[in-house]
Amino acid sequence: MIRFEQVAKRYPNGHVGLHELSFRVRPGEFLFVTGHSGAGKSTLLRLLLAMERPTSGKLLLAGQDLSTITNAQIPFLRRQIGVVFQNHQLLFDRTVYDNVALPLQILGLSKPEIAKRVGAALERVSLSDKAAQAPGDLSTGQQQRVGIARAIVHRPALLLADEPTGNLDPRLAAEIMGVFEDINQLGTTVLIASHDLALIARMRQRMLTLQRGRLIGDGEAA
Amino acid sequence: MSASKMPTPQPAERVGAAPRNKVVDGPADEPDFRTLLNAWLESHRASLVDSLRRLARQPIGSFFTCLVMAVALSLPMGLSLLLDNVEKLGGSWQRAAQISLFLDMSAGERDGQALREQIAAMDDVSDAEWISREQALEEFQQLSGLGQALKELPENPLPGVVLVTPKEVDKAKLEALRQRLAELPKVEQAQLDLVWVERLTAILKLGDRFVFGLSLLLILALLLVIGNTIRLHIENRRAEIEVIKLVGGTDGYVRRPFLYMGALYGFGAGIFAWLLLAFGLDWLNDAVVRLAGLYGSDFALGGVPSSDGFSLLLGAVLLGYIGAWLAVARHLNELAPR
């Protein structure tokens, strides 16, 4: 599913985001990327979302080389990825339903199909009764679950999450992780960037450890 | 690669392949053409409704933007309409470019009338008028003040004249027509006051060029106004645009609501400009009618012809659309997700 081959990212100001990173992720895998602030977790996610391009090396996402992808291809790549942000990135002038429906509207699905899928996605995150509400009326945990519903509603092959439990208390964080596990059980590859080692340890999944842009560990969280 | 807890489902082999076990329930089939077409139409409808709603949410700002655009649109259009009216006031421009055909002294009333009819039937002639030798003398006596002296002449020295009014005031065409008329039987001389025609053409060209230049300047101003307005809308919706791009929205999808917004601004401005011109000409008309009455004329300003009004409206919508397109194209690269 994902293949990093000596991928490096250097910025014009001289800062090095990633140093010759190499690893592979199989389809359907669940893994964490961890490390301190500035370790390169976000850079890694930004490369996968084609928000940035590698300076050198080869980055393959399901066989597609992201170092040579054209700007016109990027939207179609992103339609196959679900992404969850720490700050949710919700649109507060739209209802929960409209937020979750957005990827499906972009895909061009019919209204009944959108209604069906949005209903199913909200049910999966236990927010069926909040569809007509504005995200601003929800708690932080509920907002995060809306973000997850939006990320899975179009059935992506890959789900990326950047510190999805950063603002949540331990109980809510565990609940959100449970949702990710459910999604993964259904076949979606899940990659979560997090620095919450206690939470990662409880999940007992594969963990990549980054330090100053270098991969210093790859194994099951202990 | 950790293999301690690999999930059991078969992997999706490519990005875009729906996972075997669906994340959410429902068919994963690709939408067919009809569904895509309906979705495309729905997307346009939604963009239009959304743009209308956003304009309605800021009624004062939207009103003033449309008004500024309307003033810029109505200036060249109003000037053009006034020039048309001034042409009518001064009599037809064509009359100033008349060709005088002086017939030989042997041409009588019947020759003159026959020639008039022959010339009036020509494609490039608007009108032909026959002035007999007697009429010419009578007019000359009245206008020159030499009535008594002329009566003492042994015979009428003036030839019969056919006054030809061309359809178009174009120097080359007029000269060609003059030469053709000069070759007709009984025509002694064909005279065209080319200096006057040239002056007239120069005045018309100056007027046209002034209106054209003013139009260009005001179109540029309109594009700047609409571009700046759309830029502000883009700034206000930056977060939304970033999210749309992150979930796979194309540039076209991002651009669409702003193009509708530009076209709607243009539509509003076109309506306002039409109203401004209609009321403005009506307001001027009272004074013009009073002035014309003092000169014994029943001249009155014409209103805005429907065809001109609709052209104005269409042009305004197009300008709004183009202005919005340019603004979004310029800012689209800056809208990459952060």
TrEMBL record, chain A:
InterPro entries: AAA+_ATPase (IPR003593), ABC_transporter-like_ATP-bd (IPR003439), ABC_transpr_LolD-like (IPR015854), Cell_div_FtsE (IPR005286), P-loop_NTPase (IPR027417)
The name this protein goes by in its record: Cell division ATP-binding protein FtsE
Subcellular localization(s) per the UniProt record: Cell inner membrane; Cell membrane
GO molecular function, one term: transmembrane transporter activity
General function of this protein: Part of the ABC transporter FtsEX involved in cellular division. Important for assembly or stability of the septal ring.
NCBIfam families: FtsE
Domain ABC transporter, chain residue ranges per copy: 2-221
PANTHER family: CELL DIVISION ATP-BINDING PROTEIN FTSE, IMPORT ATP-BINDING PROTEIN
Residues spanning the membrane: none
Domain of life: Bacteria
Main subcellular location: membrane
Any one Gene Ontology cellular component term annotated for this protein: plasma membrane
TrEMBL record, chain B:
Sorted UniProt keywords: Cell cycle, Cell division, Cell inner membrane, Cell membrane, Membrane, Transmembrane, Transmembrane helix
Membrane spanning stretches: 60-83, 210-230, 258-281, 309-328
Source domain of life: Bacteria
Region (Disordered): 1-27
UniProt subunit comment: Forms a membrane-associated complex with FtsE.
Functional description taken from the UniProt entry: Part of the ABC transporter FtsEX involved in cellular division.
Official protein name in the record: Cell division protein FtsX
The species this protein was found in: Pseudomonas sediminis
